[in-house]
Amino acid sequence: MTITPRRAAVICIALVTSASTSAAPGQQRNFVACPIVRDTSTVPCWLAEYEGELYFLTLQTDVSAPVNPPQLGHRVLVEGVVADEPRVCGGIPLKPVVLSVLPELDNSCSTMLPAEDRYNLTFEPPRPPGPSRGRLAFDNPAPPPARPAAEAEALPKSFTLQYDFDSTVAFRHAGALQQIQDAVQKGKATHVDITAYRASSLLSNGKTLLEREDIGRRRAEQLAGLLKDAGLTGVAYQVRWLDAAAPDGGDDAAARRADVVVRRN
What we know:
Blueprint lengths: L4 H17 L6 E6 L1 E4 L6 E6 L2 E7 L14 E9 L9 E14 L6 E2 L35 H5 L3 E6 L11 H13 L4 E8 L1 E3 L5 E3 L4 H15 L6 E8 L13 E7 L2
Parallel strand pairs: 2-7, 4-6, 9-12
Antiparallel strand pairs: 1-5, 2-3, 3-4, 5-6, 8-13, 9-13, 10-11
C-alpha cells in the first residue's frame, strides 16, 4: 500500500493522540471497575482495566496491610496516581492508591487470570508470620512510639481518620483510636470534638460519585460510641457531621475523613 503524504500525516496525528491519552507518570486516575485477580506462584495480585489500560492495584494481603485488596463480585472505586515504575503483574502501578469496595453485588466482576511465568514476583509479607491481630477496633494495635511525659500531657490534640468510600471504621483505624484514647486519659481531657464528613469523588470520565446521605452522621456517631465503649465516659462529646467541599479530581479521598480534637474545657 502506498503511503501518501496526507495519509502519513493522519497516521502521525493518530499516534500523537494515542500517546497523549495513555497513562503518564503523576497522572491521577479515578475510576470504577471490576477488579481482576491474577494468580502467581507466590501471592495473587489485583488489577483493574480502565479505558483499555491495565492497572496494578495491590497484592493479596491481610487486614494488616495499608491497602486492602478488592473483592470479586463487587466493583471497586480506584483513586490513585500513575507511578513511574515498571509494570507489576502486567499492570501500571498506582501509588499512592485508595481502593474502596462498593457494597452492591455485581456478578460480572469474576475475572480470574491464570499464573504466568513472566508475572512471577517476589513477595515480602508486610508483617511477621502469624495470624493477623487486626480483629477489633481496639484489639492489640501497634504501640505508638514512646513520648516524653510533658508531650503526653499537652492538649489540645488533633487526630484525623481517613475512610474508604461509603465506609466506617476499619481494621487499620485501630492505632488512631488507641492514640485518641491515650490522649484523653493522659491529658485528663474534658471534651472530645468529632466532626465527620460526607464526600464525593470526581472520576476521570467527568462523572461524580457521591457517598450515601447519612455516612457523615454514621461516622461521627460510631466514633463517639467506640470511644465510650472503650471506657471514655467521663468526657463531654461534641458530635457533628458536614458535607465536604466539591471534589476536584485530585486527592478526593482525603475529604472522606473524621477530625477528632481532644481538649480541656
